[in-house]
Design brief:
Number of helices: 18
Strand content: 25-35%
Distance between the termini: 97 Å
Radius of gyration: 45 Å
Strand order of the largest sheet: 28-29-30-40-39-36-37-38-32-33-34
Mean pLDDT: 77
Low-confidence stretches: 1-31, 291-467, 891-897, 972-977, 1511-1517, 1592-1601
Number of strands: 95
Oligomer: single chain
Shape: globular
Largest sheet: 11 strands, mixed, barrel
Length: 1881
């Protein structure tokens, strides 16, 4: 039999191939195989499938459908997958009730192969999932469009179930073994809102058995064929009756089952398609019919028309594609595919097939290809690929070259079959990077080609050579400066360094918040009105630590502003890039970096409006901010002005491929407007994000799918400001992860941690976590501060560059005249001459950082314009024109202007116009003919410019003062002002004004004509300046003494004070005082007029000084000895004192004394008359010195030992003394003494005649020395101990001794002595044979060492203390010991001793068992340490002073101590002492409660200090307190008068209005506010640069404020009401969960500060206290209700409020007069209950059922909780112990306990009214303010999180959190119910 294989080669050959095929059919049979397994829909865990449990009769858990499907005519919302080859819409009965029966079944069934299947023992797997993956939806749509051409079907969801290698059930009693026959098949259900379709797929070799035996066949050999088809199941009629529903069978006998993979109803063997349901009318299943069912194997190759360019049937079937056959274009218009843009349309039928894309699968045995009619062939095993892959036509700049391009097959080479690589989706792919100058593209796609020279067509692998391989050496500049480059076999990749994240090309500091800026442009049609968006600004701010992304678009015209509110996807991009990462996931920026293209299409329903969004990441700007430009175009539905948009939280799945990520979803949103009420709409979003990927490192691919969880979506359009805002909270996780699951309740994943916004939250076990400041920040994680790398010398900037600090990092910028070189890091000179800046008749001379233009001989000019003496016929371009044109041409080359560039203006003759103005800044000035600014002519914007035509006064050159003034840098390179720069002041003539003052420091002084300070005229701030006009005494030059005094360095290079420097004393005439004294040593001496010490006059401290005024003997010239003595360096070159210098001794005549001794080392020796040491006379310290008066023996030549001894370095090369140097000892003959000893360490050893140490002879100090006269034993090799000992660095590389090094001790056999001691520290310990310390054997100095010969106890592991101690005892990297490091002390069990002391500083303190210092226990040296055994007082939180003190850097980054740092002093309560003094400088000053210096209080050392207890005079004010001032006063009282650095205190202007910029304390967490103090959304910043906020202007009086109407939540039974500044918010509860989606503003109260809040459940009214208006108010919770003022007199600071619904009374506290009052609910019957024994009452509650009041008193000295009856009787204290700042108070009606939340102890506790049963519910709250109780849950407002927190009473865990979109402090909280709760009345 002859066979033929159909090989479609081109669309043009369609007819020819059809004829050939028909001919082939007439004479033979074309062999066509079934589909391959690789042609099935993807399945398995990598595709997101669930796996059914193994077994004989298993049913899956319920598979809930996101949207219900129609099966037959009924709606079902859940499915079940069963072992026995079926999918059901209801839970299945036991298998014996259906598995052996035929159709119909009693329940709904989709049966691809109903039989008795058994997967026990690992015999197969069953997978299933429901998916919205675009590629799967596309493939199902295409199958349906092919099988049902008239169907208008757009699937929204697909269910895929796969039975892989499953076996039939077999009885265990059969004698034969189990069969090896297994089956594989698949069922796919696709559906939309109206229809459902089902695909059955049976791959080749997929069916190996065709039926199963009944379980109860009683050994009768009978087999029932599998049933394939559908059954509706029983249906109900006449209410109670049921009957069989319709059913449909595909098979009837065994042969028809065998045909399943041999035939099909789609034209493809093994592929079956059915219409299975419709919303409106459906009788029974409708099969597809392409050519009818094939009852026999086909005689030719049937192909499946796919109209697709996507590899739908290979491993990469997840690629989305929506390109359909042009013949079906009309039907496809309703299909919302992303490729709807005309530029993405497919090629017309009949076009050259080479213009179509060849999809492929790398693992498939064959690659599907396109034939005539765009048909994709299944099962063809030998199809040669002769077409060239192409993509659809796109504009230049969006063309995409695949990361693994397919090979180009040469013409005529049709026999080659190169292996295809997977391709990417087409419809929204933007190519990165852009390619220019590419060939014209024909419809259907652009060319994707590979150079044939680089391709090996036999292997399909691109060959890399040294010429084309990219390496780090050539391209490392493409990596971020925070990345490293790695070479791989095929190229290089960039990887971010630790502490940074990104794709390597762009890296950002981990944990730091991120900013985005860019432009939005395009045309948006609203309804029928097109609106142009012309480069309006977009800004975004993302808090990476919790996934919050805020986006603001400014200057949005009103029609578009309302209509674009649903377009949250614009801001969702930033949420995806920087989402909060849950485990096993990563945010988008780690994949894309800062350069990418996102292309999305949004289709609105029901109007089918389409809008395209293109967002292009342009990289990071100079401030590390991401730049993204957005283009929107298309149509959006009209939304009425004033409408509100609500979007529910949702999840979206992202698919990841090489260089592209895709997603598709359908969103619903609600529109609430006055005109239309509430309406629901939806839109479909499809998007692709393309980026540059690096695959050279062959690293594991990212997860194929991840889900983005958008928990909160907030949108608004502010009409007055024309700003569109989106706020979205984003998390990213693997698909299927429930972010609220118990494994993710860690605050790091929940986003409710209290880490700083510039810190990372690191999850630990359970709910524990750790806050770690982001890279580039420093602090404790809860308060982080930017590190100024530039100021601290930590930058990586090189020569010719300058460092610019950025939040979280820094950047390097080249100086003027330099640019970055090839490596992107080194600044190289710019060769300006290469751009020909000079005139054509001039030559250019390049220099470092500059250039020079010189006219050629015969020409004259400035080099920019040169001319001959004769006139020119054609005028060359002038300097002005060249200047102007060079700037404009630069703009054209870059494609867009440089913002703010100044372009000079030239007149018609090419000369500079006399008046020049800057187009951006508005400044104007006059210029001369060279374009140079004329002094004094610059005017600011808005003022009249100077008349530049007026004749110039004779221009005088700039004076020295003006040059000086103009050169001072008052702005940074980025243009930010520099605070503290001194700018000299010049008079009108340019001369220095006589009196100069420093604007920052306040010092003033007089200067001479050169600007030099006149001595003695400087005055400190706050004192009267010197009268500089007084006639100057003739100024004398500085004397030698004054020069000497002034150059002494009293501070180190780092600015720290230097102790012990000698400063000479000069008299009034500048001459040396005759008596000089050293301030540190106390020695005094007389000096001559040159400051030289007079011989014999030095006296030690404490002895009478010599009378230096006695006439001296006639002075003789200095002798050699005296010159030597006076020339010894006792100070370093930098002026610092030196200890231990050898100073020669001279007698009265100035001659060397015969005996010289070194005062530091104690050595003595004899010298000759020239001071040279006489050989053999040196004696060691303590030995009798040599008699130097004995006559000399004849001198012999020096021996080797004597030379060695003389060259021993006892002084450094600069002449400074060295302590501890080893000096060899020589005998009388100059030979080495056989026994040598080290004078400092005490070690002794034997040497040979050459002075070399003899092995095994060294002994430690205090042990008998070896007898060096005994003959040597045979030399054994050195032991490990000896090698260790000899390798220890006891001298530095230069040969100088090192103190404090540990030298191991070895015994006579070279083994470690069992006991080792450190010679410097005195610690001793036992070691094993390897020299390793044995645990628990270390003893401190002065204690009895351990007996190291006792056998070891079983060794326990090192404790935390021992590890800590071991690390502290480490040495520096060079092996030198570190002096001054704190070493913790551990007890015998390895635990921290309770009392720890620092051996260097003398401070002592108590620690807990973790070694953490216990607050308030530190004592300075010389004082009695604390008793650490006393039980702790309840620990209060650290104060601002203590935080300040603890973060002062007293040690360098390397751990070395820093001298001179100012350490603030705090009192016992942790508050700043009123008087602060600097321990090093001696300056003292007064501070306020926040530690800020009070002006005019600083006094220098030695002067009386200011009395800091005297009150600061405050100027009286005539106006009443403003809202801002009242709020500020209230909060300061709340903070106990001393706010922490991170706590918010309103900032007010001098007139009492809110400052435009508000910040949290001393942090950089700032935002803008309006005139009422309300936050302007989207302005929050955590940068060093505060947000630019415009001052608020009060609204005109003719425009009243909006009426405060009540807007209650709808359909809510339980609602939490919370006070937030100027509004009352409503937060519904769903059960006990906070329902953030339905939260809303109940009541807006402009100008108010709502604090206390209460609710009356009987009258449905809310009551509140207003701190600003000083009123108590109420309002009915009914739509449109208005507030009613109840009390407005004699209130000062009303706070807590309670309502007794039973007695119709209300109670409140007033914290200023310290009172508790009550009144009827209408404000009448007011009376005072308590006005004594109250210090700061805060919260108050009433228990109506018992008639009891409870309140808290926030008295810092004695806080308490009290109670009384409602009539003021029976007052008593309930709790007074163990509380700190009891803020919140509530009543647990279930346990009948009073509960409070404490902002001091951070605990939530409860106690019975009688004081018993006290217990802690939660031990570590943040900053609670108010609290309520409901159904075993506490709900409290938190000032750290600025939200509502829920705590479960049962689990003691935080269970939920709500953060309002606009962040500010929340005050009171109450619970509102539709009916009164039990116990409330």
């Amino acid at each position: 039999m002859q066979s033929c294989s159909l090989t479609p080669s081109s669309t043009m050959e369609r007819g020819v191939m059809l004829a050939v095929c028909l001919l082939c059919w007439s004479c033979s049979v074309c062999v066509v195989t079934a589909i391959k397994r690789t042609d099935m829909f993807s399945y398995g865990t990598l595709s997101g499938d669930l796996i059914l449990a193994e077994g004989d009769d298993e049913t899956s858990r319920v598979l809930s459908l996101p949207k219900p499907l129609f099966f037959y005519g009924s709606l079902f919302s859940q499915l079940y997958v069963a072992t026995n080859g079926i999918i059901s819409a209801q839970d299945l009965p036991m298998e014996k009730q259906y598995v052996d029966d035929g159709f119909p079944t009693d329940f709904p069934v989709v049966a691809p192969f109903l039989a008795d299947i058994d997967t026990s023992g690992g015999r197969g797997q069953i997978y299933y999932r429901v998916t919205e993956t675009p590629s799967v939806l596309n493939r199902v749509a295409q199958e349906v469009h092919r099988g049902f051409p008239d169907a208008k079907f757009t699937p929204t969801h697909v269910v895929v179930a796969t039975w892989e290698n499953v076996a039939a059930y077999e009885e265990q009693t059969r004698t034969t073994g189990p069969s090896d026959k297994v089956n594989t098949f698949q069922a796919v259900i696709g559906y939309d809102e109206t229809d459902s379709y089902v695909l059955f797929l049976y791959p080749e070799d997929g069916l190996n058995y065709f039926g199963t035996r009944p379980k109860e066949s009683y050994n009768v050999e009978i087999e029932l064929p599998a049933r394939v088809g559908f059954s509706r199941g029983e249906v109900t009629y006449l209410i109670f009756s049921r009957t069989e529903g319709p059913h449909y069978s595909v098979t009837s006998d065994e042969q028809s089952v065998k045909n399943l993979y041999q035939v099909g109803n789609t034209g493809i063997p093994g592929v079956w398609l059915f219409h299975t349901g419709n919303r409106y009318s459906f009788d029974n299943i409708v099969p597809a019919s392409i050519g009818g069912l094939l009852d026999t194997p086909p005689t030719g190759g049937h192909s499946l028309s796919l109209d697709s360019t996507t590899p739908e049937y290979g491993e990469f079937e997840e690629y989305p594609d929506n390109t359909f056959d042009s013949e079906n274009q009309e039907e496809e218009e309703d299909y919302p595919h992303t490729g709807g843009d005309p530029e993405f349309q497919p090629a017309p039928a009949g076009g050259d097939h080479s213009e179509s894309l060849q999809p492929a699968s790398p693992d498939a045995p064959s690659s599907p290809s396109e034939d005539s009619g765009h048909q994709l062939s299944y099962g063809s095993e030998d199809v040669p690929l002769t077409s060239e892959p192409r993509y659809s036509s796109e504009p230049a700049g969006r063309q995409y070259a695949p990361p693994n391009p397919p090979e180009r097959v040469p013409e005529g080479d049709a026999q080659r079959t190169p292996k295809q690589q997977p391709q990417v989706p087409l419809e929204v792919v933007d190519v990165y990077p852009s390619h220019r100058n590419e060939p014209p593209l024909s419809p259907g796609g652009h060319v994707v080609s590979v150079d044939e020279d680089d391709v090996d067509f036999d292997t399909g692998v691109i060959q890399y050579t040294t010429e084309n391989k990219e390496t780090c050496a050539r391209f490392q500049q493409q990596c971020s400066q925070n990345a490293f480059c790695s070479d791989y076999a095929t190229g290089f990749c960039c990887h971010c360094r630790p502490g940074f994240y990104g794709n390597g090309r762009h890296c950002l500091p981990e944990g730091a918040p991120q900013r985005v800026s860019g432009k939005v442009s395009g045309t948006v049609t609203v309804g029928s009105t097109p609106v142009e968006l012309n480069n309006i600004d977009l800004h975004a701010y993302i808090v990476v630590g919790d996934g919050r992304a805020y986006t603001a678009i400014s200057q949005v015209p009103e029609p578009v502003g309302w209509a674009l509110m649903p377009l949250a996807p614009i801001g969702e991009l930033f949420g995806w890039l920087f989402a909060l990462e849950l485990p096993n996931s990563q945010a988008g920026f780690k994949i894309t970096g800062a350069e990418f293209t996102r292309r999305a299409e949004v289709i609105f329903y029901p109007g089918n409006q389409r809008l395209s969004i293109i967002q292009t990441g342009r990289g990071l700007d100079d401030h590390n901010h991401l730049t993204v430009d957005t283009v929107v175009s298309g149509n959006v539905p009209f939304l009425p002005p004033g409408a509100e948009i609500t979007m529910e939280p949702f999840k979206e799945t992202y698919q990841y491929y090489p260089s592209v990520a895709t997603s598709s979803s359908v969103r619903e949103f609600s529109v609430v407007s006055a005109e239309q009420g509430s309406e629901s709409f939806s839109f479909q979003l499809k998007q692709n994000i393309t980026y540059r990927d690096c695959r050279h490192d062959n690293r594991a691919a990212v997860l194929e799918t991840l889900q983005i969880i958008m928990e909160r979506v907030f949108v608004m359009y502010v009409k007055e400001e024309r700003i569109l805002r989106y706020a979205i909270t984003n998390k990213i996780s693997p698909v299927g992860v429930d972010p609220t699951g118990p494994e993710l309740v860690n605050p790091c994943y929940a986003g409710n941690h209290d880490c700083d916004t510039t810190a990372q939250c690191i999850p630990l076990e359970g709910q524990a976590f750790q806050c770690q400041c982001a890279t580039g920040y420093r602090g404790d994680g809860r308060n982080c501060y930017d590190i100024d790398e530039c100021a601290e010398g930590l930058s990586s900037c090189r020569a010719h560059s300058q460092c610019v600090n950025l939040p979280g990092g820094h950047r390097c910028q080249c100086q003027s005249g330099y640019e970055f070189g090839f490596d992107g890091r080194t600044c190289v000179d710019i060769d300006e001459c290469s751009s020909s800046p000079c005139h054509v008749s001039a030559r250019c001379i390049n220099g470092l950082g500059s250039f020079l233009c010189q006219c050629q001989p015969g020409f004259y000019g400035d080099g920019f314009y040169c001319s001959q003496t004769e006139g020119q016929t054609v005028r060359p371009r002038s300097q002005c024109e060249q200047h102007r044109d060079s700037l404009q041409s630069g703009m054209e080359q870059s494609g867009r202007p440089s913002p703010g560039a100044f372009i000079p203006q030239c007149d018609s003759d090419g000369r500079y116009q006399p008046l020049q103005c800057h187009g951006s800044t508005g400044h104007c000035w006059c210029v001369d003919s060279r374009g140079q600014e004329r002094a004094g002519t610059r005017t600011p914007p808005g003022t009249a410019p100077k008349d530049c035509d007026r004749p110039d006064e004779p221009v005088r050159p700039k004076t020295h003062c003006e040059h000086h003034r103009d050169s001072v840098q008052t702005t940074s390179p980025e243009g930010y002002p520099i605070v503290g720069a001194y700018v000299p002041q010049c008079d009108a003539n340019g001369q220095y004004t006589l009196l100069q003052c420093h604007g920052s420091s306040g010092h003033c002084w007089c200067v001479d004509g050169n600007g030099q300070e006149r001595a003695g005229t400087r005055t400190p701030p706050g004192t009267t300046p010197t009268d500089c006009s007084k006639p100057v005494e003739p100024e004398r030059p500085k004397t030698y003494c004054e020069h000497h005094r002034d150059r002494v360095q009293t501070t180190s290079p780092d600015g720290y004070p230097v102790i012990g420097a000698y400063v000479p004393q000069c008299d009034a005439n500048g001459q040396y005082r005759s008596l000089q004294c050293h301030g540190s040593t106390g020695q005094c001496w007389c000096v001559d007029e040159r400051g030289q010490e007079r011989v014999g006059t030095r006296t030690p401290p404490g002895t009478p000084s010599v009378d230096c005024d006695r006439p001296g003997e006639p002075e003789r010239p200095k002798t050699h000895c005296e010159h030597h003595r006076d020339g010894v360096q006792t100070t370093s070159p930098e002026g610092y004192p030196l200890v231990g210098a050898y100073v020669p001794q001279c007698d009265a005549d100035g001659q060397y004394t015969p005996l010289q001794c070194h005062s530091s080392t104690g050595h003595c020796w004899c010298v000759d008359s020239r001071g040279q040491e006489k050989a053999g006379t040196r004696t060691s310290p303590g030995a009798p010195p040599t008699d130097c008066h004995k006559p000399d023996e004849p001198e012999r030549p020096k021996t080797h030992c004597e030379h060695h001894r003389e060259r021993a370095q006892t002084t450094s090369p600069e002449g400074y003394p060295i302590v501890g140097a080893y000096v060899p000892q020589c005998d009388a003959d100059g030979q080495y003494t056989s026994l040598q000893c080290h004078g400092s360490t005490g070690h002794c050893w034997c040497v040979d005649g050459r002075g070399q140490e003899r092995a095994g002879t060294r002994t430690p100090p205090g042990t008998p020395s070896v007898d060096c006269n005994k003959p040597d034993e045979p030399v054994r090799p050195k032991t490990y101990c000896e090698q260790h000992r000899d390798s220890v660095q006891t001298t530095s590389p230069e040969g100088y001794p090192i103190e404090g090094v540990f030298v191991p001790q070895c015994d006579s056999n070279g083994q470690y002595t069992s006991q080792q001691c450190h010679g410097s520290t005195g610690h001793c310990w036992c070691v094993d044979s390897r020299g390793q310390e044995r645990a628990e054997t270390r003893t401190p100095p002065g204690t009895q060492p351990r007996d190291c010969d006792r056998p070891d106890e079983p060794e326990r592991p090192k404790t935390h203390c021992e590890h800590h101690r071991h690390r502290a005892q480490a040495t520096s990297q060079e092996g030198y010991p570190i002096v001054g490091v704190y070493v913790p002390q551990c007890d015998a069990d390895g635990q921290y001793l309770q009392l720890q002391c620092h051996s260097s500083t003398g401070h002592c303190w108590c620690v807990d068992r973790r070694g953490q210092e216990r607050t308030g226990t530190r004592t300075p040296p010389g004082t009695q340490p604390k008793d650490c055994n006393r039980p702790d007082e309840p620990e209060r939180p650290k104060t601002h002073c203590e935080h300040h003190r603890d973060r002062v850097q007293t040690t360098s980054p390397e751990g070395y101590p820093i001298v001179g740092a100012h350490l603030p002093q705090c009192d016992a309560e942790g508050q700043y002492l009123p008087r602060q003094c600097h321990g090093s400088t001696g300056d003292c000053w007064c501070v306020d409660g926040r530690g800020q210096e009070r002006a005019g209080t600083r006094t220098p050392p030695g002067t009386p200090s200011v009395d800091c207890d005297r009150p600061v005079p405050v100027a009286p004010t005539q106006r009443p307190e403003s809202v801002c001032e009242r709020w500020r006063t209230s909060l300061i009282e709340h903070y106990g008068g001393k706010p922490d650095a991170q706590q918010y205190v309103p900032q007010c202007e001098q007139d009492g209005q809110f400052s435009p910029v508000q910040c949290y304390g001393e942090t950089t967490y700032c935002w803008c506010v309006d005139q009422d103090g309300r936050e302007v959304p989207g302005t929050r910043s955590h940068d060093v640069v505060k947000p630019a906020c415009l001052p608020s202007v009060a609204p005109p009086t003719v425009r009243p404020l909006p009426r405060p109407d009540v807007t209650p939540p709808t359909n809510t039974d339980i609602t939490l009401l919370y006070a937030q500044g100027q509004k009352i918010g409503a937060l519904p509860l769903n059960g006990t969960r906070l329902d953030a989606t339905r939260s809303k503003t109940l009541l807006t109260l402009h100008g108010s500060i709502v604090v206390g809040i209460a609710y009356d459940c009987k009258e449905n009214q809310v009551y509140w206290t207003d701190l600003s208006a000083r009123t108590i108010n109420r309002a009915s919770m009914a739509t449109g209700a208005e507030p009613e003022i109840l009390i407005n007199t004699n209130l000062v600071s009303p706070e807590g409020l309670a309502v007794d619904v039973k007695r119709r009374l209300m109670f409140w506290v007033d914290s200023n007069p310290d009172m508790i009052e009550s009144a009827n609910l209408d404000g009448s019957g007011r009376r005072t209950l308590f006005d004594t024994d109250l210090v700061n009452p805060r919260a108050i509650i009433v228990v109506s059922s018992t008639g009891t009041l409870y309140w808290t008193d926030w008295n810092r000295e004695a806080p308490k909780i009290e109670s009384s009856s409602v009539d003021g009787q029976n007052r008593r204290v309930v709790v007074s112990e163990g509380i700190g700042l009891p803020n919140a108070l509530t009543y647990d009606s279930s346990s009948r306990q009073v509960c409070w939340a404490d902002a001091g102890t951070k605990r939530l506790e409860c106690v019975s009214p009688d004081g018993s049963g006290r217990r802690v519910v939660h031990p570590s709250l943040n900053y609670p303010f108010s609290m309520v109780y409901y159904r075993n849950h506490f709900y409290y407002t938190d000032w750290r999180r600025d939200g509502v927190i829920a705590v479960s009473k049962d689990s003691s865990q935080i269970t939920d959190e709500y953060l309002p979109d606009q962040r500010s402090h929340l005050y009171g909280i109450a619970i509102a119910t539709t009916h009164c709760l039990s116990g409330s009345h």
